[in-house]
């Protein structure tokens, strides 16, 4: 698996039928709607201005909700993934 | 319940009839008007430039007032919620 | 009373007839003109990059002058108030 | 006298005939031209990212030169004053 | 070999036929698509606000994925290379 | 002499015939061209985010080269001067 | 020789026929192309937010590659030089 740099993580994008049963459905409004995915790789974390690297809050295997327009798309073995900054992840499901 | 990341909290948006009896009504002017909600989940807090994470000031159960256009809408069990940064919460009611 | 978050304070907006007798009148020029009000609630203060929270300089009961276009309007018991960042308060009268 | 907040100071704007005899005259060019005034109140100073407040360099009674378009105009007892950030003061005359 | 400054690294851009066999293919969508390359030189790292220099996470020989529009193109012995900031490298393949 | 605030210095602008004999002539291209002057007053220096004030690198009497469009023009005893931030000074001649 | 301030260095711009024999040629694409030069003077370095000055990575005599549009042109004894921030230098050749 690829190793993301800094505060980046790699997410396998979940199709609608795969979505968690946590009962999350998105309303039909004009506001930004998040997407869901599963974390498959986690970077070492962001370096702060005191030179300290802080580990991300997410771990491999976490189901997460993230900003729809964030990240860079890649296909890994034909499957849609995203390389995304942890700051664009809204919540662990 | 979902676990929001960083300084984010999840808020159940209050309908008008649910609003607190604290006597807050919004004037009919052109200025931005806040909304109200109840905190249902709280992130671990923002990491500052010294690498220290500072816990949010709000707790689960707090009724809060927040900027109307802030946050990301999600439905949880059919109910409108918002994932919002604590910095967009104006006050605890 | 509501508890404002971070460096925010809540101000009861003073009507013209209530204004302090300190002799402050605003000139009729194109420059931005400040408004006046009384502080009714004070947040815990801003967190700085060293993770330290610094208490605001204003206290409940202070009469203050603030930027006219700053803050978010709310009505409390039918009276106009503003939730405003302390950095938008110019001076204690 | 009002107490300005943070790094703000209050300046009584000097009319042309009052100007200091230091021989400062402004050239007729397109560049920004400064104004002159007398400091009548000084804030406690700016808080830096280490949480430390640093006192302003100016004191009450100093004659100063400041950016023409900076600050917020107020009239105190009918006299033009400016509430201005210390960073917009160029020099003590 | 050139020595890149700060947080920069030099990357030999991989042609399509050279691409790693990790099974990464890019989807045909409107989102930004990354490129691939091999790190051939690494800078001493970025200096943070505490005056500390932090070494990059990548090393010479790493195959990396980077933002398509990042960096400055140079030819070294007729071969396409990029001088790129480490922050524009998404992941080590 | 005026006392500039913060990282500002006051420069007497050198006329062309006064220019240093260091052999500096400006090319006739579209790029920004620096001006020359002599430092006549120096501020106490910029305060950094750790609350520490760092003295400027220039001293009274230094001949300096500075960005042509930087600073605020003042006339002192009829002579063109500039109040300028030290960061807009390129070099000591 | 002039003494550049802060993180600035002075570079003698290399003409094409002078260019290093390291085999660097620039491709004919739309991307930004770097220029080459020789460092002739080095500033004391940038001051970071902890008040510490960090010396530049380059030294007098280094051949460097820099962003084509960076810096301020000066002629020294009739020869084209650039005053440039170290952060605009990409690599030591």
UniProtKB/TrEMBL annotation, chains A, B, C, D, E, F, G:
It is found in: Cytoplasm. Its main location: cytoplasm. One of its GO terms (molecular function) is protein folding chaperone. SMART domains: Cpn10. It comes from the Bacteria. Keywords: Chaperone, Cytoplasm. Pfam families: Cpn10. One of its GO terms (cellular component) is cytoplasm. InterPro entries: Chaperonin_GroES (IPR020818), Chaperonin_GroES_sf (IPR037124), Chaprnonin_Cpn10_CS (IPR018369), GroES-like_sf (IPR011032). Together with the chaperonin GroEL, plays an essential role in assisting protein folding. The GroEL-GroES system forms a nano-cage that allows encapsulation of the non-native substrate proteins and provides a physical environment optimized to promote and accelerate protein folding. GroES binds to the apical surface of the GroEL ring, thereby capping the opening of the GroEL channel. Heptamer of 7 subunits arranged in a ring. Interacts with the chaperonin GroEL. Belongs to the GroES chaperonin family. This is Co-chaperonin GroES. It comes from Veillonella criceti. The gene is groS.
